[in-house]
Specification:
Elements (H helix, E strand, L loop, with lengths): L1 E3 L5 E8 L2 E6 L19 E6 L18 H15 L4 E6 L1 H12 L4 E7 L7 H10 L9 H11 L8 H11 E4 L2 E4 L5 H7 L9 H5 L6 E6 L7 H10 L4 E5 L11 H14 L1
Parallel strand pairs: 3-4, 3-5, 5-6, 6-9, 9-10
Antiparallel strand pairs: 1-2, 2-4, 7-8
């Protein structure tokens, strides 16, 4: 399904299930397939997953500066308007969690609560460097099979991942063509990130604190290089009621079908229902 934003872009989204409405927001370079592993396990929830502009099946933006948390948050609100939803819970993976915190400040009345998947107010430099290592660059692999065979060797922190999962992952991330694998997002997303001023890291704790009074939850990958345990400890200090667990044998980002992840998700759904 699609809707059109206020600036004329066609945005793809999925809408399935029934119950409490939850908007699922994916990682920086990812799309609605981020939530394919979780969805079969979830009951009593209406899961709405959006492809950000420039990702998945959504239109690319001619102005890469619009690949921003602010504009993507606005798109999310416009999707809620399109669907006639006053408020939703958010399950935000990485970038999606940052958008969720941003909306807590910009449009708090639209949020029932936020679950953050391996993301918090502090982003670790090692994790950011790892993301910049591949952002906007076509993979060297020529086929899905070649990529699926290589990923377990070059992806650190993920243990005991079935071969079928790697096969699905490469299909979610890339498109196979005659000349090799292509990105499922606009390569200019790298330009947008590089254009941002990184000389001073923004203080995101005030955005986290805007979630006061709303249910919040956190899933951290046990081996995450983007979200540290120190940051989790501070989040728990500020919000002792935060539902929280580590997904074992996972790094950035958990797939959301791990037992620990599903336990947190189901508790979050109950809290916002």
């Amino acid at each position: 399904m699609f809707f059109t934003t206020s600036d004329g872009l066609k945005i793809a989204y999925r809408d399935q299930g029934s119950g409490v409405p939850i908007l699922c927001l994916s990682g920086l370079t990812r799309n609605s397939t981020d939530f394919d592993y979780m969805t079969p396990h979830i009951q009593n929830a209406r899961l709405i997953a959006m492809d950000y502009r420039g990702r998945g099946q959504s239109d690319f933006d001619s102005n890469f500066e619009n690949y921003s948390i602010v504009r993507e948050g606005q798109d999310a609100v416009e999707l809620l308007d399109h669907l006639g939803l006053d408020s939703v819970g958010i399950i935000g993976t990485s970038r999606g969690g940052l958008i969720g915190m941003g909306l807590a400040a910009a449009a708090p009345e639209r949020l029932r609560g936020v679950l953050m998947n391996d993301i918090g107010p502090v982003l670790e430099p090692d994790g950011l460097s790892a993301i910049m290592g591949f952002l906007g660059r076509r993979p060297k692999f020529k086929t899905y099979d070649e990529a699926a065979a290589a990923l377990p060797k070059i992806t650190t922190g993920f243990v005991d991942v079935p071969a079928a999962r790697w096969q699905q992952e490469v299909r979610n991330r890339w498109e196979q063509r005659d000349d090799g694998l292509r990105l499922r997002y606009d390569p200019k997303l790298r330009d947008a990130i590089e254009a941002a001023d990184h000389s001073v890291a923004p203080d995101m704790w005030p955005f986290f604190d805007e979630l006061a009074g709303k249910p919040i939850a956190l899933i951290r990958g046990e081996n995450s290089d983007l979200l540290s345990r120190d940051t989790v400890t501070e989040m728990q200090k500020r919000r002792p009621d935060m539902i929280c667990a580590e997904a074992k044998k996972r790094a950035h980002i958990p797939y959301l079908d791990e037992p620990e992840s599903l336990d947190v998700i189901n508790k979050f759904i109950k809290a916002i229902s």
